[in-house]
Specification:
With 283 residues, the chain is α/β, with parallel strands linked by helices. 20% of the residues lie in helices and 33% in strands. It has helices spanning 3-6, 32-37, 81-87, 125-134, 154-158, 179-186, 200-213, 252-255, and strands at 9-21, 24-30, 43-47, 58-61, 64-66, 71-77, 94-101, 112-118, 138-145, 162-167, 174-175, 193-197, 216-220, 236-240, 247-251, 258-260. The strands form three sheets. It has a seven-stranded antiparallel sheet.
Length: 283
C-alpha cells in the first residue's frame, strides 16, 4: 500500500447498524475525516472484524454524507462471510476503514440530471442527488428493483425530485426494466447528464440509450476488489483506447468506479465483463 493510501486509514464508530429488509442493512458511521473529504460516488474499504479473519477489507459505496454531523451512511447486502460478520457489529464499536477511494460523480455538465439506479446500485445515488439539489440542479430519478422492498431510499428521493419506479414483479410501479421509463421520459423531456449505477446489463442498455440520444453519462462500475487501491489488479475492466486492439484495461477501484459511458466496453473481451453494479464486490 502506498503512503498516500495508508494515510486514508481511520477509525470509525458505529452509530447504527440495522436491517432494512432481511438481507440489506443500513450502517451509519461516525467518521468526521471521511465525511469531510468524501465525494458522492466514492467508496470505502471496511475491516469488518477486529481480528485477523477475514483478512481483506470489504468495499462499500457511500450512500449518504452528513458533513455537519461528521457521519457517513452505507447500505450493504449480506452475500457472504464478511458482510454476515458486519451485521453483528453493534453501535459504539469501532471499525477500521480505508477511504475515501476512487473517483466520484461530476455534476458540472448540466442543470437537469437523470439518476438511474438498479438494485443495490440505488444506494450511492442519494448522496449525489442531495449534492445536486444543494447546487440548484434539478434531478429526475429512475429506480428499479426486484420488489418494492428493495427500492432503497425511495421516499428520500421523492423529497428531492421527480421519481419513476419499476420492479421485476410489478409490486410497486410498472413491471419493467428501469430503462423503459427513462426512454419514455426522453421522448418528451431533455436531460443534460445521466448518472447511473446498477447491474452490468442495465448499464450496458443505458450506454446504448445515451449514445443514441447524444446525452453525456457517467456509469459507476463494480468488480471484485482485493485491495481497493489499484495494487492487485483484480478489478481490471476494458475501456476504449488508442491501442492496436482498440481497448485497454483500467482499475475500477483506482481509475473508477465512475467512468464516462462513452469509454466503457461491455463485450471486448467477453471473458472480463463480470457482474457490475455499485455493491463494490461485497462478500
Amino acid at each position: 500500500m502506498l503512503r498516500e493510501d495508508a494515510e486514508k486509514i481511520q477509525t470509525a464508530i458505529i452509530v447504527d447498524n440495522r436491517p432494512l429488509v432481511s438481507d440489506v442493512y443500513h450502517l451509519i458511521l461516525k467518521a468526521p475525516k471521511l465525511a469531510s473529504e468524501a465525494k458522492p460516488g466514492q467508496f470505502v474499504m471496511v475491516k469488518v472484524a477486529s481480528g485477523l479473519e477475514p483478512t481483506l477489507r470489504r468495499p462499500f459505496s457511500l450512500h449518504r454524507l452528513d458533513r455537519r454531523a461528521g457521519q457517513v451512511e452505507i447500505i450493504y447486502q449480506v452475500i457472504g462471510k464478511g458482510t454476515d460478520i458486519l451485521t453483528e457489529r453493534k453501535p459504539g464499536e469501532q471499525l477500521e476503514i480505508l477511504g475515501p477511494l476512487g473517483n466520484g460523480f461530476c455534476l458540472q455538465e448540466g442543470k437537469r440530471v437523470g439518476l438511474v439506479g438498479g438494485g443495490m446500485g440505488i444506494a450511492p445515488l442519494l448522496a449525489v442527488a442531495e449534492q445536486a439539489v444543494q447546487e440548484a440542479i434539478e434531478v429526475v430519478v429512475f429506480l428499479g428493483a426486484r420488489t418494492g422492498d428493495y427500492l432503497l431510499a425511495k421516499e428520500e428521493f421523492e423529497h428531492l425530485g421527480q421519481v419513476f419506479v419499476v420492479t421485476d414483479d410489478g409490486s410497486v410501479g410498472e413491471k419493467a426494466l428501469v430503462s423503459k421509463p427513462l426512454e419514455e421520459y426522453l421522448q418528451n423531456q431533455q436531460l443534460d447528464l445521466i448518472l447511473a449505477c446498477g447491474p452490468t446489463p442495465m448499464l450496458k442498455a443505458l450506454a446504448g440509450i445515451v449514445e443514441t440520444q447524444g446525452i453525456k453519462a457517467q456509469l459507476s462500475l463494480e468488480q471484485r476488489m482485493g485491495c481497493g487501491v489499484g495494487a492487485c489488479l483484480g478489478c481490471a475492466f476494458p475501456v476504449k483506447a488508442a491501442t492496436p486492439e482498440g481497448y485497454t484495461y483500467k482499475r475500477v477501484c483506482h481509475d473508477g468506479p465512475v467512468f464516462g459511458a462513452h469509454e466503457v466496453l461491455f463485450s471486448v473481451p467477453k471473458e472480463v465483463t463480470k457482474q457490475g453494479g455499485c455493491s463494490c464486490g461485497q462478500s
